[in-house]
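User: I'm putting together notes for a lab meeting next week and I want to include a structural view of one of the chains we've been expressing. I don't have a solved structure, so I'd like a prediction I can at least talk through. The sequence is below, exactly as it appears in our construct file.
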Amino acid sequence: MILVTDDLRAQLLRNGENPEADHAPVVKLFNPCGAATWLLTEMLPHEPDILYGLCDLGFGSPELGYVRLSELESVEGPLGLGIERDLYFEAQAPLSVYAEAARRKGAITERETDLREAAASLGKRLFPDPDLPPPEGDG
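Assistant: Thanks for the context. Below is the predicted structure for the 139-residue chain, given as structure tokens.
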């Protein structure tokens, strides 16, 4: 499986040009034979093998950091399975909200209630969420 398609690569590179922004995850990768998950937001423009995002290796301490795409592509697990891309992943919030929810739960979570609680604690919101007014200062 191609982990990063041309369209995803283009978005990751665009995000990498503005590393200070709180980007929404562009791609979710996971180990089908284990607990490792990555929510990736950026690709370094000067080093396109390096991705940035929320990395959870399944040990109860997810963290923001960098990972090499080539290393993820080289993983071969049981039955010859490698890291896969979640074809149905759609970001519900900026990376900071996923990171806060993961800090609280000890693992990356996509549960709406976990993300809502994390977003509220950060003064942010999920998107799209037409039922909630924007937080103060969110235009």
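A couple of points you could mention at the meeting. The beta strands are 27-30, 37-44, 47-56, 63-68, 84-85. The helical segments are 6-16, 69-74, 95-105, 112-122.

User: Perfect, that's what I needed.
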